[in-house]
Amino acid sequence: MRIDVLTIFPDVIEGFAAASLLGRAQRDGLVDLRVHDPRDATSDVHRSVDDAPYGGGAGMVLTAEPIFRSVVAHDPPRPVVLLSPTGRRFDQAVAQDMARLDGFTLLCGRYEGVDDRVRRHLCDDAVSVGDYVLAGGEVAALVVLEAVTRLLPGVMGNEQSAGDESFSGGLLEYPQFTRPASLEGHEVPDVLRSGDHARIARWRRAQSLYRTLAWRPDLLPGGVDGLAPEDRRLLEEFPPDDPDVAGPEPGDGPS
Ligand code: SAM
């Protein structure tokens, strides 16, 4: 998959890529990451990429021309996706859709944002990584890059992992434990050490349901009553493992 990133801070993207799963995916030929700096497409001596906003107001705005020129010069893959707090919400379903593409391009804003002609006439999509405002699109681009590329076949060691995870099946993931089995009196649930894989799978699904009902009820808007009969039976078969999940109060969540 080819992924291009347009940013005035290329080192942020390249540095992260080199130190992460993405670096290995590049070395293995699974991801072709190309980072472009719109400053390289400027024509003035200061390599300016920002200017004051028309209409007045605080801060500066990234200018459209170097971004358009950079796209013409590098012909990056479509869709071109602007990182923006005004974009549609990026979530696991969007990550899964993007992982099916042959490639895409991420465009990072800075300052007060990007001349809107870029979004209107150059970009195909705009995504937001959450309802908060970052100083620039680089961290948001890294969120998208990592969430998408770890879904590509061969990028993660264990192909099973992505299918089981939070959000993939509409639920939060079940609790995970590793050695030691006993830690200062806190025991790993017996069922996980039983070797009974069918029972472990049922227990895990029950715990996923409990967690989701308690911590992310928005993912199960029908509540317990909206669950399939086999899921309701699982809740009868297994109690919640985590005391935090037994009696959720507003604001409760994983600590
Ligand atoms: N003035 C803009 C507004 O109120 O919508 C915010 C600009 S923000 C300081 C600068 C850049 O950071 C944006 O152009 C965008 O690329 C990036 N950014 C900030 N928050 C983001 C978010 N939640 N999701 C994606 N990108 C974001």
Task: Describe the overall structure.
Helix 4 (92-99) packs across helix 6 and helix 8 packs across helix 9. This protein folds into 2 domains: 2-159, Alpha/beta knot (3-Layer(aba) Sandwich); 170-237, Trp Operon Repressor, Chain A (Orthogonal Bundle), CATH 1.10.1270. It has helices at residues 10-18, 21-27, 64-74, 92-99, 116-121, 137-149, 160-164, 197-215, 229-237, 243-246, and strands at residues 2-6, 32-36, 50-51, 61-62, 80-89, 103-107, 125-128, 182-183, 186-187. It starts with a strand and ends in a 9-residue tail after the last helix. The radius of gyration is 23 Å and the shape is elongated. The strands form 3 sheets. The protein has a 5-stranded parallel sheet, sandwiched between helices. The chain has a two-stranded antiparallel ribbon with strand order 3-4. A two-stranded antiparallel ribbon has the order 8-9. It is built from 10 helices and 9 strands. Helix content is 36%, strand content 15%. Strand 5, helix 4 and strand 6 (103-107) form a beta-alpha-beta unit. The longest helix has 19 residues, at 197-215. The chain is of the alpha/beta class and 255 residues long. S-adenosylmethionine binds at residues 83-86, 108-110, 112-114, 128-130, 132-137, 140.
